[in-house]
Amino acid sequence: xxxxxxxxxxxxxxxxxxxxxxxxxxxxxxxxxxxxxxxxxxxxxxxxxxxxxxxxxxxxxxxxxxxxxxxxxxxxxxxxxxxxxxxxxxxxxxxxxxxxxxxxxxxxxxxxxxxxxxxxxxxxxxxxxxxxxxxxxxxxxxxxxxxxxxxxxxxxxxxxxxxxxxxxxxxxxxxxxxxxxxxxxxxxxxxxxxxxxxxxxxxxxxxxxxxxxxxxxxxxxxxxxxxxxxxxxxxxxxxxxxxxxxxxxxxxxxxxxxxxxxxxxxxxxxxxxxxxxxxxxxxxxxxxxxxxxxxxxxxxxxxxxxxxxxxxxxxxxxxxxxxxxxxxxxxxxxxxxxxxxx
Length: 342
Hints:
Radius of gyration: 23 Å
Structural class: alpha+beta
Shape: elongated
Number of strands: 12
Mean pLDDT: 85
Number of domains: 2
Largest sheet: 10 strands, mixed
Low-confidence stretches: none
Distance between the termini: 37 Å
Strand content: 15-25%
Helix content: 25-40%
């Protein structure tokens, strides 16, 4: 559960007071002179700007509370930039594509951030709404359609535990032991921790309810006002929905990179038709996730899964590419876990 500074509390409380005054005034005007268009203008011009400011404050507080603070190191030659070692399980094919891309004169291969619409988990991003458990009066505020984002997930290191060669993760995310795990270095500022269980959203729920109570006099007037208010809420909060998961997943100790669609450069969106023949799977390439940066420092590694066919031959191929690409900090390893597919 995140903590707020007194300054943040006073900002949100002051915004809620202003919003309540404006909402009551707007409701009175509408009830005295019912006019749907006039109400819409009132909401758009007078209510939405302070609501946006307040929700941005809430969002900034949430994102600050999810920062990865205890993993970063400061590589030599890059003062002021902290990098965190994290683990990403993937397929042999993906590991090969990343390595092969590093051989080009102008390497462009990067770790992909997939559109949330194309993730494997159909419940992705939905837990936040369950945990908020909005009272009946405010159910209108739950997002009707998902706010899409580009994201990718990592396992955050836990002391000396070797998460890059872990039986449970090979079974869950490592292609049933036939994939690879990547230990890479990511700018700490890009990473946000995933928090688990309903306790993680208590403060967020308190702040949201304060704002929803404030705008209730207008929201109670009907779907037209609710639609505008709802859009404003989730335009500002959409990205954080991917930072909460059910308590059952807490052992993953996951962290993520999440970019709302509106915050990305569409020129770096690519399409992959091979994974789903009925659609083009969209992904985003960020310049800070280039393979030449991911495997730049000592301690980075690719571990070949315990049930991968021809492990040693694959390891030799990866070693050849690594040397040609001059990725001197990268270690190629094979899993040491005795494995049997379930």
